[in-house]
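ok here's C-type lectin domain-containing protein, seq below lol
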Amino acid sequence: MFKLRIICVLLMTLLFVSGNFLTLERGDVAGRTNATARCPMPKTCHIYGFMEWYKVGSYCVKFFSELLNFTAAEFSCRNKVPGAHLVSVHNEEDNNLLVNIVKQANNSNPRVWLGAFELFKTETFLWLDGSFWDFEFWKPGEPSHKHTSEDCMEMYLSDAGRWNDETCGKKKSYICAFKWHTILKPGSEKME
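and the structure came out like this:
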């Protein structure tokens, strides 16, 4: 992730210094490379009423800076959108997009709640939305289970978005998510 940012900065510097930024076109053009494609912010969810949410995988997600404990954050998500939960993460690309979303909106809270919890001290984590546990991005040495009360999961922004097990009662910012197709009623359209 760090190397990717350096490459993006160098490419942008070269474009602006050489004057070629005036000819850079949106999207890929035959024979050219889009220099900003490797530093992505996700597209917005094009659903009426949710344009401030971002599309990450099959989810619409939004960062909330309000500091809440894990349970309150989950209930806050559920109250914001029917079918919403704290976000689940299923691949490194989506994890990186979440880091970008949070960093754009937040510089003061380096830790953010994600939607996973440990099942009854079994050292098995589950996603609150019921999705499969098919990806992990733990900080080295985590989950540590050093404290018997570390049953919830957070993301460390200062460590490339790696995960940590944490005490559920601590107050943190959080990311809510819902599957975009669950909010659309039959016959309704997404915005294009």
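fwiw The two ends are 31 Å apart (CA to CA). kinda neat tbh
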